[in-house]
Amino acid sequence: TFPMKLWLLVNSPCVHSVRWDARGEGLFIDQRLFEQELLGAGPSAAGEEELFKTKNFGSIVRQLNLYGFHKLAESPAGSAVGSTPMPTTASGDSGYGDGPLHHFWNPHFRYDRPDLLLKIKRLTKANKEKLDAGLEVTSR
């Protein structure tokens, strides 16, 4: 599923475009680096099977929204970017490129709680109606 792919990416030492925020409760996506690294939009793209069935970053943002991720405004300096939910090193090296940096949050996407991934459901019309009615969404 999309949330599981995202979980694997943010925890992979080989992926540099997706990182946990300082508290491990949200993720940063470096758009330009993500496009090169994972969408095959640049020279550094690996020749492996496509992870996402798109080369368009906007489609990834749409998927994030469909799964209940919310884009956060520019984060304060306290939310330093790191590969693990800890402040960056004293040198300030965050390993990021110069692309637009997007910060997304979902209450069930946390560094220390992989078990919560099961609670992330795709927001279909039927699921939205259930949520609006106060019912629990149990299937995708």
Automatic annotation (TrEMBL):
GO terms for molecular function: DNA-binding transcription factor activity; sequence-specific DNA binding. Pfam families: HSF_DNA-bind (PF00447). InterPro entries: HSF_DNA-bd, WH-like_DNA-bd_sf, WH_DNA-bd_sf. Residues 1-123 form the HSF-type DNA-binding domain. It is found in: Nucleus. It comes from the Eukaryota. SUPFAM superfamilies: Winged helix' DNA-binding domain. Belongs to the HSF family. This is HSF5 protein. It comes from Cisticola juncidis.
